[in-house]
Amino acid sequence: MRIGLYPGTFDPVTLGHVDIIRRACSLVDKLVIGVAINRDKGPLFSLEERVAMIEAECAILSEETGCEIVAHPFENLLIDCAKDVGASIIIRGLRAVADFEYEYQMVGMNRQLDNTIETVFLMAEAQHQAIASKLVKEIARLDGDVSKFVPDAVRDALEVRLQKK
């Protein structure tokens, strides 16, 4: 069984993430969505909320693609998380040249830590290339319409969360 790991903070999950997850399913039998705890980023949503959002979206994708998809919170090194879940492939989404520069460094470091785990880059589809969770949160905070950027359930969760603040 080929297992892939798609890591991220997913605060919140966007249509760009969903696109990468859908396409990654064609490469693996099982896809683990590594939900980074990453307290330094100060996420808007709790770990439990982010995992629930991922699970809700992935239930639909798993049925569509036939790929087993599971959410897995992690706080250790990415390469150690990959080993923990038995992944032989790390999947990373790219939007722009700036993403590539950062990802290039990460691949080099991860290869030094374990050269048996490959990294595969998937380019976001054109309509999703500008989507970033940080920008989605900013648009939502300023009462903008984020329905083009996130699944409906995530849009609703953003509205509820930001009304409470």
Brief account:
With 165 residues, the protein is α/β, with parallel strands linked by helices.
Going by CATH, the homologous superfamily would be HUPs
Largest sheet: 5 strands, parallel
* Mean pLDDT level: 93
Bin the strand percentage: 15-25%
Terminal Cα span: 45 Å
What spatial order of strands do you see in the largest sheet? 3-2-1-4-5
**CATH fold assignment:** Rossmann fold
Structural class: alpha/beta
Counting H and I runs of at least 4 residues, what is the number of helices?
A: 6
Keywords:
46% helix; 5-stranded parallel beta sheet; 165 residues; Rossmann fold; alpha/beta; 6 helices; single chain
Q: Overview of this structure, please?
A:
The chain has 165 residues and is an alpha/beta fold. The chain has one domain (3-164): HUPs (Rossmann fold, 3-Layer(aba) Sandwich), CATH 3.40.50.620. 46% of the residues lie in helices and 19% in strands. The protein has helices at 15-24, 47-65, 78-85, 97-113, 133-141, 152-164, and strands at 3-8, 30-36, 68-74, 89-94, 118-123. It has a 5-stranded parallel sheet, sandwiched between helices. β4 (89-94), α4 and β5 form a beta-alpha-beta unit. The mean pLDDT is 93.
Itemize the secondary structure elements and their pairings:
Blueprint: E1 3-8, H1 15-24, E2 30-36, H2 47-65, E3 68-74, H3 78-85, E4 89-94, H4 97-113, E5 118-123, H5 133-141, H6 152-164
Parallel strand pairs: 1-2, 1-4, 2-3, 4-5
